[in-house]
Amino acid sequence: MEVIMKLEAFLDYYIYNGKKFSTQGEDKFQHIKEPVVYEVIRIIDGQPLFLEEHIDRMRKSMDLLKAKLKKDNEEIEREIYKLIEINREKNMNVKLVCGDIHNSQNFIAYFIKSNYPKREVYNDGIHTIIYNTERHNPNAKVVDSDLRSKINEKLKEEHGFEALLVNEEGCVTEGSRSNIFFVDDNCVYTASNDNVLMGITRTQIFKICEKLNFKIEERNISVKEIKTLKGAFMTGTSVNVLPIRTVENINLNSVQNEIIKNISDSYNKMVEEYIRNRKKSN
User: Fold this and answer.
1) What pLDDT does residue 3 have?
2) Residues 149 and 181 grouped into a single domain
3) What pLDDT digit, counting tens, does each position of 91-137 carry?
4) String of b and e for 83-119 (b: at least 16 CB within 10 Å)?
5) Same domain, residue pair 159 and 264
6) Domain count, the chain
7) Could you state a single Gene Ontology molecular function term (predicted)?
C-alpha cells in the first residue's frame, strides 16, 4: 500500500504533516499505516473544487472508523494551496491521505496523475462492465488496493471505462470509482445512501434534479432491469457527468437522453460558478 502511494505521487513536491518534501527524496509514505482514509479533490484554475464537502466527507469516513481527524479545515486548505504553489500546477487532482488514524495520524497531500475524458468520450458515451462485489463499509472512503487492482485488471481485459459493482441480490450499488445513475421516462434512479459512498458530485446531482424538477428516487436497480431503462450515467471527481453507452452487452441511448443532457449542462455551470466565487473570496 505504501509503495503504491509513493509511486502515484506526481510532480516535484508533496506535503507531509505540513512540511514540503521532494517526491524524489526522503520517503515519508512509509509512515502511512492502515487503516487509511483518503480524498481526491479536483483542482481547477488553482482552486479546489467543492473543498468543504470533501473535508466533511473525510471527517465522516473517520467517524465511521471511530476516529477523529485532528487537522482543522483551515490547515488542510492551506496545505492544498501550498501544494499548488510549490508545484506550479493549477489543473490536476490532489489526493489527501491520512494514515494510522487512531494514533499519530500522519497526513500527506500530493498531486496524482489525472486523466480527464476528452470531449469525444462525452459525445460517444462509455462502455461499462459488471463486477460482482460490494464494499464492506461503503460510506467510508478507505483504501482497498487489492480490490482496485482486481477491478483494473478486468477493465483492461474487457476494454471497459468503469465497472458497475453488483451485490448478491443482483443490483447495481455504485461504480468502482464513481456513483451510478439510471434514467427512465421522467425519473432518475440511484442506489440508497446506505449502499454507496456519498459522492461529492452525487450530492450536487441531487440538488440539480430538485432544481430542474426531475424526480429522483433512491432505489436499487437490478442488472435485469437495465435493458428496460432509457439511459445511465456515472459521476465522479474527474469525469463530472459521463453518459454510459453500454453495460456489458446492453445498449443505452444515454448520449441523446434529454434528462442526462440537462443534468450535465447544469452541473458544468455549477462548477464554473463555484470556481468563480472561490477566486473572488481568495
Assistant:
1) 47
2) yes
3) 999 999 998 888 889 999 999 999 999 999 999 999 999 999 987 77
4) bbeebebeebbbbbbbbbbeeebbbbbbbeebeeeee
5) yes
6) 2
7) transaminase activity
